[in-house]
From TrEMBL:
Comp. bias intervals (Basic and acidic residues): 166-175
Sequence segments annotated as region (Disordered): 131-175
Residue ranges of the TM segments: none
Biased composition (Polar residues): 131-140
Superkingdom of source: Eukaryota
Family, as annotated: Belongs to the LOB domain-containing protein family.
Pfam family, one: LOB
Protein name, UniProt field: LOB domain-containing protein
Length: 175
């Protein structure tokens, strides 16, 4: 704080320069509105007003002020671009995108389950009629893939149950 305050004595912060006032050492804007970013304060002042920003910063704990200013700057910039919706415009576009991609993902996962089931069975079952019943797919998958699945379960059990490691060894030796 002491080292940074010396740099503010020469050039006022972006807020004080914009408001044409003397930048005091205890200026609440100075740490968050450096003179190199004049547009940041200009946007925030236009949308929220300097006195409201000052009040808000005084209500927020010092370690949260930087995040608060960044949030205000982001919202101000968004509201300059879209005066009606601001950030909400971008958020709603992204929400719609998420819903659309989730539907695509669900459809692709359903396709994958169908393909996996058909390759396991090696039978020409009309898959389309089974699309509603995913449970039957898992059942047939377990029955058809017993050769591939049972050894995997057998070898993974000693790792999962380390306390019964000796018991598994005996079982393997006996069987
Ligand atoms: Zn200042």
């Amino acid at each position: 704080m002491a080292s940074s305050s010396s740099s503010y004595t020469n050039s006022p912060c972006a807020a004080c320069k914009f408001l044409r006032r003397k930048c005091m050492p205890d200026c609440i804007f100075a740490p968050y509105f450096p003179p190199e970013e004049p547009q940041k304060f200009a946007n925030v002042h236009k949308i929220f007003g300097a006195s409201n920003v000052s009040k808000l910063l005084n209500e927020v704990l010092p370690h949260q002020r930087e995040d608060a200013v960044n949030s205000l700057a982001y919202e101000a910039e968004a509201r300059m671009k879209d005066p009606v919706y601001g950030c909400v415009g971008a958020i709603s576009v992204l929400q719609r995108q998420v819903i659309r991609l989730q539907k695509e993902l669900d459809a692709t996962n359903a396709d994958l389950i169908r393909y996996a089931a058909s390759s396991c069975n090696n039978l020409e079952i009309p898959i389309a009629s089974q699309s509603g019943r995913t449970r039957t797919n898992s059942n047939t998958g377990h029955g058809g893939g017993s050769l591939g699945q049972n050894p995997g379960l057998y070898f993974s059990s000693p790792w999962n149950r380390s306390d019964s490691y000796g018991g598994d060894r005996n079982e393997r030796g006996g069987g």
